[in-house]
Amino acid sequence: MSLRAKLLLVALSILALPWAGWQFVRQMETLLRQGQEQALLASADALARGIAVRPGGLPAAGESWFVHPLDFAPRLDGDASDWRGATAVPLVFGGPKPWVRVVAGRASERLHLWISVDDASPQRGDAHWPADLAFDRLHLRVLGRGGELALRLANAGPGELRVAGEDGLPPPVRVEGAWREREGGYDVELALPQDFSVRAIGLRVQDVDAGGAIRSAGTLDGAGLVRPAPLHGVLASLEPVLQALAPEGMRVRVADRDGWVLARAGELRADQSEEDILPWRRGIYRALLFRDVTATANEPPTARRLLRAEVARAVAGAPAVAWRRDPAGARLLLSAAVPLEVAGQVRGAVLIERSNSEVLLLTDQAFSGLLGVSLVAFLASGGIILLFATRLGQRIRRLRDAAEHALDREGRVTPFPRTSARDEIGDLSRSFARLLDQVAAYTDYLRSLSGKLSHELNTPLAIVRTSLDNLDDARLDPQARVVVARARDGVERMGHLVRTMSEVTRIEHAIEAAEAEDLDLRALLQGCADAYEALLAPRSLRLDLPPGPLPLRAAPDLLVQALDKLVDNARGFTSERGWVRLSATREQGGVRIALANQGPLLPEAMRGRLFDSLVSLRDSSQRAEGAAHLGFGLYVVRLVADLHRGHAEAHNLPAGDGVEFVLHLRGMP
């Protein structure tokens, strides 16, 4: 691929901008939802506290009956079709498989009851029959303004309801009702007198099967006796209070411990996104933003009972929130439920709901802005990168052409064009020019030196090697072979000497052309130490650097070469169980770099000559690790120290267990 194509390919990385923006939009939507949850819980808690201040009319903390408000009195015929949906969610008894369903309603201050009993083996009898006879019957215990009333309800057949007292005699009050037989059971519908003012009611249903076995269900205590439960219903007096306290655009409902709605107020704000957001965008938000919401708000606003998980948790004493999809649009509906506590007892729950259309509108605005910014940024960056790639490719091609014609057919260096550009391409062009100047000078040097070296070194070395090779074929005694081996080692040493001198010459030229730059010496030493650990293993490397940076104007490549020479020298004199310590400190006028190693001490007579050329203290065992050492390493260290306006020194450690080499550097001008 061409450079232009590669840069255009790299430009595609800007596509990460829309992805990052979308992640931001999702995170923003999540944070806004969390903020809505906290705010809605706070509003619900404030409403619950306001209601708890005036708890009149709230149901008791224990078991109680919810009385449905009826628009008109139903016909007492045992058919619940005229109860207008009140029987849709009845109270049930006789678990685990309930077989008794009860609904209480009030019309014109008169209490109505509808009781449905599942009975597969009817054993019928009239209410006035003796109580010790086994037949199907209902027992009511009613508390009202006239006192306590115990009633027995039973019919031998369908028709007008038969009512008697517990003693089988006619009751003191007139109870109207009907007994209706149906397949699999019977239904009882009755109405108590208007002037009785029922406050509590208890029920026990007795069912007798064909074998005489009796089962009972209803509001029973532990001994099986009827326990009256207080009545409560819709609190019309509470709705004006809720209407005044409910936040605008929210729906508030108060429910008892069984979920029956006692009061309601407020309406949800209309979904503004239906008009302000395009349908395809709503589809995207519904598919991507609302993936974590699976429930749908199918419950009608006028529901008589709230069968919700958050309401159940609130009745249990813990606040809860829930998100649901709006089946009619792309918005979410948030509901928060908190316990309604009075004197430390949970009397019900407060449920408050709102929509998140505002969040959806903000998300749409952010998404629209993201699309626009991403498109402009992509087009602009793509155009700029294309122009830059074209210009960069032209400059690199000119540099390539100049490099290809830098040497003519005869090996002579031609003038290299220089540029004044201050970027990396300009630096590379000037580096090529300096390199070619050095190559030209070095070529001239090699041309002048080649004849001398060929005559003075190569030819004698070749003669000696040939002679030694011929001696290998001769029959020599062992002592003579040792001498020949020593001679061959000397020849190899002379060859290595020629190569080492060439390396020193190269480093000297590098020192002459070195360019200074500002660097952090601490970071440089840290990076070098990471590489030296593997080289020195199994020896241990200790690093002692100051906590802060060590600024220095220097040539980093030459400093690294000097450190390489010092580390190689320390490796040769340190046993495998020994240690090497590299340290640096700031001193007046510059920095101090020290490399200490555990090993033999320096002879006093050699301290002043260690940094001279061709001086080495290595014995034969230390040379065995690699090629012969000719003493040029510390000489290079001295040249690097001189370049940085400093000096190098070596001394024995005070403890007498090793040697320390020190570089005092002031920096390049």
UniProtKB/TrEMBL annotation:
Molecular-function annotations in GO: kinase activity
One Pfam assignment: HATPase_c
UniProt xrefs under InterPro entries: HAMP_dom (IPR003660), HATPase_C_sf (IPR036890), HATPase_dom (IPR003594), His_kinase_dom (IPR005467), HisK_dim/P_dom (IPR003661), HisK_dim/P_sf (IPR036097), TCS_sensor_his_kinase (IPR050428)
Residue ranges of domain Histidine kinase in the record: 452-669
Domain (HAMP) ranges: 390-444
Residue intervals passing through the bilayer: 366-390
Substrates-to-products reaction catalysed: ATP + protein L-histidine = ADP + protein N-phospho-L-histidine
Main location: membrane
Locations listed in the record: Membrane
Record key words, sorted: Kinase, Membrane, Phosphoprotein, Transferase, Transmembrane, Transmembrane helix, Two-component regulatory system
SUPFAM superfamilies hit by this protein: ATPase domain of HSP90 chaperone/DNA topoisomerase II/histidine kinase, Homodimeric domain of signal transducing histidine kinase
EC code: 2.7.13.3
Name of the protein: histidine kinase
Annotated source species: Arenimonas soli
Classification of source organism: Bacteria, Pseudomonadati, Pseudomonadota, Gammaproteobacteria, Lysobacterales
